Amino acid sequence: MPQLTLVPAHVVEAWDDPEIRWFYREAHRLTVPAPTSLALESHYPAGLLGFCRLWWASFHDGRIERALMEELRVRIAEQAGCAYCATSRLEAPAATGRPGVTAPAGDTRRQAALAFVDLLSLRPWEIGPATWAGLSDVFDEDEVVELAVFAAWQYSGPRMLRSWGAARYKTGERADASTLPVRLAYADDAGRTTPPPRPPAPRPDGSGSAPAGWLTFLAPRPELAAAWLGLWRAAVDDGPLPARIGQLIRVDLATRLVHPAWAPLDAPGIRAAGIDAATMAALPALDPAMFDPRERAAVGYARAMLADRELDGAEEAALAELLTEAELVQLGLAAAVQVGAILVDRSRAAGDQAEATALRLAR
Predict the structure, then answer these.
(1) Is CATH 1.10.10.10 what the domain over 9-96+105-178 is classified as, yes or no?
(2) What's this model's pTM, rounded to 2 decimal places?
(3) Looking at the domain covering 216-362, what would its CATH class be?
(4) What percent of the chain has pLDDT over 90?
């Protein structure tokens, strides 16, 4: 992925969007997420809002104790090889939505959560009924959903930021404003916060685009389901990229991760994108007769994120030539919102040993 630039303050502040202003101010104050990541996502404002709403709902405003979620955040980022994310440290903890509880070393909730994210990060093919039963023994249903949504995003989000070259803009716990090429939005207003504006009421997924099974799993936590669906729409259904690219990524990732239920060919979004059995057959080799250069470059990027590898020079050059920075942000979000979620969703209905082996080989 070509390294993205930071969107300067005067551009963001000219939008005069109260919700974006609040998210930026809180990012400056809390440092997680780093405000430089918001400045990268600001190339695509709808994607920025989708990410921030999901992050705040699952991390800052959730029900699981803050100390545990922060430990999980850092641990997954380290396993994803993202020093940019792993070196950030949550500040002003008393101002977040969680009680300031530290999970002791022998705490069963901590042990179960760490075991889950370690498997997800390192050996996702081993997650099965016993893993979920262990979580349910120590977390209630609402907390299990929260943990799953957060872990699914955190699995992929750091890989996305790594691919954007985010580490250029922050090498320690905080970005050094004196070394940045632009001023970050609302940096001077970080100490003045008000309650966040209420986001627009989420509309139901009338299109049927998003994976139905995953939304059913999220249903006990409507605010998390709405936030995840909002990011899905911004990354897959809407935005500057053709919807077909998001659906191609969806089908390709579901196939590679041995989870066809994520992308059934009769799903409305997939049908609308013109993806059929013939398209599926041509997808592994990205047959130039079936896919245009932008589609091939985008799917190649998603495959690199899945395989946790860096893009080579030719791949980066193709993306830089074919996609704008707004499209690159949407592309990163389209991969990130799906990879971890597919792994988590698949694990809830893990198949036989042959499927587990296929998943291990794909990873």
Answers:
(1) no
(2) 0.92
(3) mainly alpha
(4) 74
